[in-house]
Amino acid sequence: MQKNQIGRRGVMKRALTVLGAAAVAPQLLAACGGEEAAGLSCTDTSGLAAAAVTTRESQAYADSSSDPNKKCSACNFFTAGQANQCGSCSVIQGPINPNGTCNLWAARPA
Ligand code: SF4
After folding, report:
1. What's this model's pTM, rounded to 2 decimal places?
2. What are the residue boundaries of the structural domains of the chain, listed by start?
3. What CATH fold (topology level) applies to the domain 41-110?
4. Which one of 39, 53, 61, 107 is least enclosed by Cβ atoms within 10 Å?
Protein backbone atom coordinates (compact mmCIF):
# COMPACT_ATOMS: atom_id res chain seq x y z
CA MET A 1 0.00 0.00 0.00
CA GLN A 2 1.32 3.46 -0.91
CA LYS A 3 1.83 6.13 1.70
CA ASN A 4 -1.21 8.34 0.85
CA GLN A 5 -3.66 5.47 0.42
CA ILE A 6 -5.88 4.53 3.28
CA GLY A 7 -7.07 1.01 3.76
CA ARG A 8 -10.41 -0.25 5.02
CA ARG A 9 -9.32 0.27 8.60
CA GLY A 10 -8.50 3.90 7.85
CA VAL A 11 -11.88 4.48 6.25
CA MET A 12 -13.66 2.87 9.20
CA LYS A 13 -11.62 4.92 11.66
CA ARG A 14 -12.50 8.19 9.90
CA ALA A 15 -16.17 7.25 9.64
CA LEU A 16 -16.33 6.49 13.37
CA THR A 17 -14.66 9.82 14.14
CA VAL A 18 -17.28 11.71 12.09
CA LEU A 19 -20.15 9.76 13.64
CA GLY A 20 -18.77 10.40 17.12
CA ALA A 21 -18.62 14.14 16.48
CA ALA A 22 -22.21 14.12 15.21
CA ALA A 23 -23.38 12.36 18.36
CA VAL A 24 -21.66 14.84 20.68
CA ALA A 25 -22.63 18.04 18.79
CA PRO A 26 -26.14 18.47 20.30
CA GLN A 27 -24.72 18.20 23.83
CA LEU A 28 -22.11 20.82 23.05
CA LEU A 29 -24.78 23.12 21.62
CA ALA A 30 -26.84 22.84 24.79
CA ALA A 31 -23.80 23.53 26.95
CA CYS A 32 -23.06 26.65 24.92
CA GLY A 33 -26.60 27.98 25.31
CA GLY A 34 -27.68 26.86 21.86
CA GLU A 35 -30.75 25.44 23.53
CA GLU A 36 -32.46 26.50 26.72
CA ALA A 37 -30.71 25.08 29.74
CA ALA A 38 -31.98 21.64 30.67
CA GLY A 39 -31.83 20.77 34.34
CA LEU A 40 -31.55 24.41 35.46
CA SER A 41 -33.23 24.95 38.83
CA CYS A 42 -34.62 28.39 39.69
CA THR A 43 -36.61 27.52 42.78
CA ASP A 44 -34.53 29.07 45.57
CA THR A 45 -36.77 31.63 47.25
CA SER A 46 -34.75 31.84 50.46
CA GLY A 47 -33.85 35.50 49.86
CA LEU A 48 -37.41 36.65 49.20
CA ALA A 49 -39.87 38.34 51.53
CA ALA A 50 -42.87 36.24 52.52
CA ALA A 51 -45.22 38.36 50.41
CA ALA A 52 -43.08 37.76 47.30
CA VAL A 53 -43.11 34.01 47.94
CA THR A 54 -46.89 34.14 48.36
CA THR A 55 -47.29 35.98 45.05
CA ARG A 56 -45.01 33.49 43.35
CA GLU A 57 -47.07 30.60 44.70
CA SER A 58 -50.47 32.19 44.09
CA GLN A 59 -49.56 32.75 40.46
CA ALA A 60 -48.47 29.11 40.26
CA TYR A 61 -44.90 29.76 39.17
CA ALA A 62 -43.45 26.46 37.94
CA ASP A 63 -39.85 25.82 36.98
CA SER A 64 -40.95 23.91 33.90
CA SER A 65 -43.85 24.70 31.58
CA SER A 66 -45.98 21.88 30.25
CA ASP A 67 -46.98 24.16 27.35
CA PRO A 68 -44.01 24.76 25.02
CA ASN A 69 -45.73 27.94 23.77
CA LYS A 70 -45.99 29.47 27.24
CA LYS A 71 -42.46 29.44 28.59
CA CYS A 72 -41.02 32.35 30.55
CA SER A 73 -38.46 32.79 27.78
CA ALA A 74 -41.32 33.87 25.49
CA CYS A 75 -43.07 36.02 28.10
CA ASN A 76 -43.22 39.80 27.95
CA PHE A 77 -42.16 40.08 31.61
CA PHE A 78 -39.03 37.92 31.37
CA THR A 79 -35.43 39.14 31.32
CA ALA A 80 -32.86 36.49 30.45
CA GLY A 81 -29.88 35.84 32.70
CA GLN A 82 -26.39 34.82 31.64
CA ALA A 83 -26.04 31.60 29.64
CA ASN A 84 -27.24 28.63 31.68
CA GLN A 85 -28.41 30.91 34.53
CA CYS A 86 -31.81 31.88 35.89
CA GLY A 87 -33.40 35.04 34.56
CA SER A 88 -35.74 37.49 36.23
CA CYS A 89 -39.30 38.70 35.87
CA SER A 90 -40.82 42.13 36.31
CA VAL A 91 -43.92 40.77 38.10
CA ILE A 92 -42.72 37.62 39.90
CA GLN A 93 -39.75 38.07 42.20
CA GLY A 94 -36.93 35.56 42.56
CA PRO A 95 -35.00 33.43 40.09
CA ILE A 96 -36.93 32.58 36.94
CA ASN A 97 -36.26 29.60 34.74
CA PRO A 98 -36.47 30.32 30.99
CA ASN A 99 -38.38 27.03 30.75
CA GLY A 100 -40.76 28.05 33.54
CA THR A 101 -44.22 29.56 33.47
CA CYS A 102 -46.96 31.07 35.64
CA ASN A 103 -50.56 32.29 35.44
CA LEU A 104 -49.44 35.78 34.41
CA TRP A 105 -47.73 34.64 31.19
CA ALA A 106 -48.18 37.20 28.42
CA ALA A 107 -46.76 36.86 24.92
CA ARG A 108 -43.84 39.08 24.11
CA PRO A 109 -44.84 41.43 21.29
CA ALA A 110 -43.36 40.46 17.96
S1 SF4 B 1 -44.93 36.56 34.35
FE2 SF4 B 1 -44.83 34.38 34.82
S3 SF4 B 1 -44.57 33.42 32.80
FE4 SF4 B 1 -43.98 35.57 32.58
S5 SF4 B 1 -41.77 35.63 32.95
FE6 SF4 B 1 -42.80 36.06 34.89
S7 SF4 B 1 -42.89 34.05 35.88
FE8 SF4 B 1 -42.52 33.65 33.71
Report:
1. 0.70
2. 1-35, 41-110
3. High-Potential Iron-Sulfur Protein; Chain A (4.10.490)
4. 39
74 CA to centre of ligand 1 in angstroms: 9
Give CA–CA dist 4/108, Å, rounded. 57
Q: How far is the CA of 16 from the centre of ligand 1 (A)?
A: 44
pLDDT in tens, 68-110: 999 999 999 999 999 999 999 999 999 999 999 999 999 999 9
Query: Atom 2, ligand 1: which residue's CA is nearest?
Result: 102
Share of the chain above pLDDT 70, in %: 66
Query: How far apart, in whole angstroms, are the C-alpha atoms of residue 63 and residue 39?
Result: 10
